[in-house]
Amino acid sequence: MCGIVAYVGHREACPIIIKGLKRLEYRGYDSAGIALMNGGLSVYKKKGKVAELEAFISEKDTHSNIGMGHTRWATHGEPNDINAHPHYSTSKNIAIIHNGIIENYASLKKLLIEKGHTFDSDTDSEVFINLIEDIRVNNNCTLPEAVRLAMHEVVGAYAIVVLSQDSPNQLIAARKGSPLVVGVGKGEYFLASDATPIIEYTNDVIYLNDFELAVINNGELEIRSKEDVKQTPYVHRLEMALESIEKGGYEHFMLKEIYEQPRSILDSMRGRMIAESGHLMMGGVREYENKFANAERIIIVACGTSWHAGLVAEYLIEDLARVPVEVEYASEFRYRNPIITEKDIVIAISQSGETADTLAAIELAKSKGATIFGICNVVGSSIARATDAGAYTHAGPEIGVASTKAFTAQVTVLTIIAMIIGSKRGALETTKLRQMIAELENIPAKVEKALLLNDQIVEISEVFKNATNFLYLGRGYNFPVALEGALKLKEISYIHAEGYPAAEMKHGPIALIDEQMPVVVIATKDSSYEKIVSNVQEVKARKGKVIAIVTEGDTTIPSMADYVIEIPETSEHLMPLLSVIPLQLLSYHIAVMRGCNVDQPRNLAKSVTVE
Prior knowledge:
Elements: E1 3-8, H1 13-23, E2 31-37, E3 41-47, H2 50-56, E4 66-72, E5 87-88, E6 94-102, H3 105-114, H4 124-139, H5 143-153, E7 156-164, E8 167-176, E9 181-184, E10 189-192, E11 204-207, E12 212-217, E13 220-224, E14 230-231, E15 236-237, H6 253-259, H7 261-269, E16 273-274, E17 279-280, H8 283-286, H9 289-293, E18 297-302, H10 304-321, E19 325-329, H11 330-333, E20 344-350, H12 356-367, E21 371-376, H13 382-386, E22 389-392, H14 405-425, H15 430-451, H16 454-464, E23 469-474, H17 478-493, E24 496-501, E25 518-522, H18 529-541, E26 545-551, E27 563-567, H19 576-593
Parallel strand pairs: 18-19, 18-20, 20-21, 21-22, 23-24, 23-25, 25-26, 26-27
Antiparallel strand pairs: 1-4, 1-10, 2-3, 2-4, 5-6, 6-7, 7-8, 8-12, 9-10, 9-11, 11-15, 12-13, 13-14, 16-17
Helix pairs in contact: 3-4, 4-5, 7-14, 7-15, 10-14, 10-17, 15-19, 16-19, 17-19
């Protein structure tokens, strides 16, 4: 979950690396550091954000055409100057930056100490670089060969870049389970955890595969396998625009991304359906349509917000296609010895396409013969390459740590998939299918309308900004939205919040309700409306403060609730795409009013690439 940037070429390396680290800061912001080759191997690092590192090196001699930088999300060792990357080897002749976790670091460290190596930090990364140095010395081999041999010794996930004082024009990189991208310019190369630091300079990138080693030396790039076989890389052309990773006048990336949802939803359905003919097409699904239609079970694996999108998909697929669906936390799925067969389809959902637990779940399911379908937002990501087929969400880069537009894009794609399966199985009648397509096409405009509620939500946020607890209630399709609303508030405002099925309130949470407890009830007009009315009455009878999300024109619940937010009417199946919008805005404004760092909430990182 750390951010890696490196550069070698004809430009000054330091400004490129610092700017790149700022763009990757959503991946980790506990500490940051940089290593440069300027008469020797110089390492500068600082606890805190990249801006603090930038200030620290402002008076240093940073002239160099080669270097590497790192922004950290702590796993081994607390955030401080010493544990920040880069890390020297014992001799200080080589240095490393590392994203990932080395699971056998303790045994390796013990062995290396016995051989005379010393350690300054508490990190597993320092073990990796000392292992490389030990192999290099004892085998009298080149540094790339030492890195390759070290890859055989370490257990876990890693993306690394290594810089050596003895080879001042050489960068060495390797990966296993953590992303690493090589940017190919004219007489220059870039390395990064994702493409955001690269697109300002080149649109040509190579996605390193697991166990691949990249050596950039004297302007030449060579990629070799773990078995030392030379690889012929495929150069991808990035479609990403630079403005897509800038704030564009918004105070925070999160607010920008909330307001981008009309477009990101539209982009996620574009070219995939035609309302007039009731035609649906999704390239990744086409080849596996019969497999989907005949599936005995669909298993959805995901984490966090993507798991909530998966819950919405469970309702959609079971309702529209009549296929049994199980939604699993990827982090639990792989450890409970699940029953999987070749008749199952596993749908893996991840915004980044790099989520470590989801990747591990995919590998488990593949080993059992299941068909794997991926849904992710990042072209060329590990999940996109590990699955049998899949679909991109086309949400565009999401920089804010708290996911917003990725959720609605995922739900949009999953809705289309549910309709395709339902149509193929004959469970979804043509008339209803056309109605749903027509209504889905109206969703972007309705999201635009829901965003006009912003000023009203600011006023409600002012009332509840100092609350210490929130309860979110929903039924049916809106239950996953209740979970998502609670998660957003927890993530960025640090207020304790819980999402519950509204009917479950009576089985415990109702004991928490008093005049101090804000209760957000998603109470739109649907098949369970009368039941949700009863739930609101139960909350009011105990003096809870009700914030109700209702359908425009409703008069029943507004007469009971303390605060009412009206959203446009739509099909019950599509309501999560609208009902989540005010919850995103509510969490955002409360967090801003509490002085929280909305885009970089404490202890969190955007891409969870470690288990």
